[in-house]
Amino acid sequence: MDQLTGFQRDLLYVITGMDRPSGQDILDDINDYVEQPVTHGRLYPNLDALVEEDLVEKGQLDRRTNYYALTPKGKRELEHRQEWVERYVEH
């Protein structure tokens, strides 16, 4: 988890907060948060990197649309990260 970029960690949070979102769903959500719009060219390589790290599962909703979901490893890593963050940030 510590090897991920901040953007990749943000993607994990977005994915965990949604039910099997498509890439477009993720893009729409992240663009509501960031000042500089995220492009498809930035999003999909980062999603693929998360899939390669076995943090995110990629599947098909239909012939044209993929979904993304955290793997068990991704959930554990995100929970561990959140516990670490909470040690330093008050609620």
TrEMBL record:
<protein>
    <submittedName>
        <fullName>Transcriptional regulator PadR family protein</fullName>
    </submittedName>
</protein>
<dbReference type="InterPro" id="IPR036388">
    <property type="entry name" value="WH-like_DNA-bd_sf"/>
</dbReference>
<dbReference type="Pfam" id="PF03551">
    <property type="entry name" value="PadR"/>
</dbReference>
<dbReference type="InterPro" id="IPR036390">
    <property type="entry name" value="WH_DNA-bd_sf"/>
</dbReference>
<feature type="domain" description="Transcription regulator PadR N-terminal">
    <location>
        <begin position="12"/>
        <end position="79"/>
    </location>
</feature>
<dbReference type="InterPro" id="IPR005149">
    <property type="entry name" value="Tscrpt_reg_PadR_N"/>
</dbReference>
